[in-house]
Structures are given as structure tokens and as C-alpha cells.
Amino acid sequence: MRFATIKTYAGNIAVGETAGILTSNGVVPVKSVNDLKKTHWSTDLFSMICKDEIPVINEWYKSGGKEELEALTKITVPFDKVNYAPLYRNPGKIFCIGLNYQAEADTINDTAAADLPGSFYKPATSIIEAGGTISIPFLPEEVDNSGDYAKEVDGEAELVVIMGKECKNIEREHWLDYVAGFTTSIESTVIDVFNKGLRKLCISKIYDSHFAFGPVMVTPDEIDDVMKLKVRTIHNGKLEAEDYVGNMIFTPDYLVSFHSKIMRWMPGDVISTGTPKGAIIFDGDTVTTEIDGFVPITCPVAKEKRV
Question: What is the pLDDT at residue 36?
């Protein structure tokens, strides 16, 4: 099953965001399904995850709901009219993994860790939607000694795991029992800052717009084998890098289990699992994440507007 959050409009003005279910024709808003079927499912994806409604809706979907949705063409938003929002805007944790493929580590002449994952957080303020603009940030003098725009920003294609249940100390073989779904991200890094040393890692990762999140969440039953998915970074329409999830140094099952032994996962938490290799992006560029079987996420790049 596939979920998205789409923007709603009054005339030409965006007035809100609502959860929807993908069909072959477009996106059916959950609110419209509730109105027709007299169901009471949440109409935002974060609440659906936190209330553990995804498995219930998925069971209905697999037991005839899919065919019902396909027939609801009058309340379906066609794909050419869909404007995606981020899947949701306030996850409790945005957890990311650095240098999770050796090829990515090679780009900075580093050795990818083999003992523990290189983990870090991003704030919710870094979230943007598919099609949102990734900013080349203006760096204050305290950061770059000159007060100017960043000279190198890396746009990184990644697979994202979305947690569906609260859990602690789970084993690798049970990881999917706690996963609501998967999506795509473009996770960005200000290389100017990153190159200043490990203590600056946080500052290199937390800029507004540097976590493009979505546009579609795919439930685990839709994926035959997560490890066989291929992740691609596309820069200005050209392939920059690609690799299989199974070639990660720390695969998603390990990441979910390992981190659960350090902290408690909560519903809606996300973990962006690392990139095969990012692309250095500039004003006027585009960057895309493509993963087999997923709706791609593409974002333009522009210098940050200074107020």
C-alpha cells in the first residue's frame, strides 16, 4: 500500500495538507474515504502511524479496498493535479547515517566505519517536500570566516525507514514488525563546514531545506526484498551514483535493531540510511533520489534568499 500527503487548495491558494492513498489513477484523500465509508481514520499520516492505523487500513485495502479505491474516480486527485507535501512535518527523530557505503567514504578520503554506524540527527525544520527548493545557505562569519554562501553543498539520495511502533531492544530478525513503511529522501550536507572537522558535523547537517522527505510511503508488504533495492543519486538528469541497499556497511535491519538498544524508537521516527554517493549541487541545479519501485523525489537548488 502507498500513502502520500498532498496539498489542499481553495482556488489557487494552498490551505492545508491531507493524507491520501495512491491508486493507479491518482491519490484518494483519506477524508473522502471516511465520508463515503463512514470510517474514522486519521486524515494526517503522522497520526495514522502513531495510532497504529496503517495495518488496519492495509488489511482493508488487501481485502477489497484496493478495488473500491480504483472505482472512486470522482474523488481521486489525478497525478497531474497532485502537489505533494512532506509525508509529515514533525517526526520525533530524524536519524541519519553517514558514510554507510565505502564509495561515499572514498569521496572524502575517509574509511567507512566497520564497528559502529556514523549516526547524527537533523531537525524537523530541515524538512521540505518533493519539488521544494534546496537552499545553498549563507554562512555567517563565525562559520566560514568570510560571510558568504556555501561553496559546496552535497545532495544525497537515501532510503528512509519510517518506524511504526514504539520499541526498545529489538532483534534484527524482527525489525519489520516495527516498521510502518519506507520512503525516499534527499539529505544535504554543507561540505564547507563538514571539512572543518568532526566537531562541526552537526552544523554541516542542520540547515533549513536540507531534508527533502517523501513523496510516498510504501508499506513493507509491497517490497519483496529491501536489500535488493537500488538507490540512485541523479544530478541534473544524469546518474551520479547508484548502489544496492544490501551493499550498505550497516543495513537497515541492523540500524533499526542497533539503535533500539541505545534509544527508544517511537512511531513516526525516521532513519535515513545513507547514500551511495552524493552530488555537489549549485544554484540552478536539480537533484533526484530514485529507488526501485518508489516515486522519485526531485528538488531544484537555489541560493538562500536573505531577509
Answer: 93
Cell of 223: 517490497
What are the residues whose beta carbons fall under 8 Å from the beta carbon of 55, sequence distance 6 or more?
Answer: 164
Q: State whether 173 and 262 are in the same domain.
A: yes
Please give the grid coordinates belonging to residue 146.
568570510
Contact between residue 57 and residue 47 where contact means Cβ atoms under 8 Å apart: no
Residues 6 or more apart whose Cβ sits within 8 Å of residue 1? 21, 54, 57, 58, 61, 62, 218, 219, 221, 222
Q: How far apart are CA 226 and CA 253, in angstroms?
A: 9
Mean pLDDT of 290-302: 97
Report how far residue 234's alpha carbon sits from residue 279's, in angstroms, rounded to the nearest whole number.
8
Q: Mark whether 185 and 116 lie in a shared domain.
A: yes
pTM: 0.95
Domain that holds residue 48: 2-81
The three-state secondary structure class of 27 is: strand
Q: Which whole number is the average pLDDT over 291-298? A: 97
pLDDT for the residue 31 = 96
How are beta strands 211-213 and 127-128 bridged, if at all? parallel
**What is the spatial distance between Cα 304 and Cα 137, in angstroms, rounded to a whole number?**
5
Backbone angles phi, psi at 260, to 5 degrees: -70, -20
Q: How do residues 158-194 score in pLDDT, each as one tens digit?
A: 999 999 999 999 999 999 999 999 999 999 999 999 8
Question: Taking the alpha carbons of 218, 240, 230, 169 in that order, is the dihedral positive or negative?
Answer: negative
Report the pLDDT value the prediction gives residue 106, as an integer from 0 to 100. 59
Residue 86 lies in a domain: no
In this predicted model, what pLDDT tens digit does every residue of 76-93 receive, in sequence order?
999 999 999 999 999 999
